[in-house]
Amino acid sequence: PLTEVHLPLDSNTSKPIGLAFITYMLPEHAVKAYTELDGQIFQGRLLHLLPAKPRVVTNKQETSSKSSYKKSKESKLRSQAGSDRNWNTLFLGSNAVIDSMVDKYTVEKRDLLDPDTNSSLAVRMALGETQLVSETKEFL
């Protein structure tokens, strides 16, 4: 399973520039993808995979006495931006939760999203997401 996909965009056209950074949950999955996909043709283009180097974390914090609160807070946020702990890797969008519940319980999407039922849609979505996250944690 993937934990993160980053597609850099061209600042002028707002379209992908033709490369991606993929983070896998397990290193074995990354190795498998590398061995199976490197050099393959995808949609008429040659895929060339390069393994990433580990991130180098630098702690550059401004210690200037003239630094304002806003600048020191911004500096702290920038130093933490590369941390893997900033992103919830088990986050699920509402559409993914609904699709998973439809597949699991073999019901129609409209039945799950029906506002005329006795229970709240928000509660059903929260319960579905909680169940999916617990199943994913159990799998890992």
Please give a structural write-up.
The radius of gyration is 21 Å and the shape is extended. 2% of the residues are buried. It is mainly α and 140 residues long. It contains 5 helices and 4 strands; from the N terminus they run E-E-H-E-E-H-H-H-H. Helix 3 crosses helix 5. Helices cover 41% and strands 9% of the residues. The protein has a two-stranded antiparallel sheet. The protein has a two-stranded antiparallel ribbon with strand order 3-4.
Secondary-structure map:
Blueprint: E1 2-6, E2 21-24, H1 27-37, E3 41-42, E4 45-46, H2 69-80, H3 94-105, H4 109-112, H5 121-139
Question: Main attributes?
Answer:
140 residues, mainly alpha, two-stranded antiparallel ribbon, 5 helices, extended
- What fraction strand? 5-15%
Which value, in Å, is the CA radius of gyration? 21 Å
Give the tally of β-strands.
4
Strand order of the largest sheet: 1-2
Structural class: mainly alpha
Oligomer type: single chain
Number of helices: 5
Percentage of residues assigned to helices: 40-55%
**Molecular shape:** extended
H/E series: EEHEEHHHH
Quick structural summary:
This protein has 140 residues and is mainly alpha-helical. The protein has 5 helices and 4 strands. 41% of the residues lie in helices and 9% in strands.
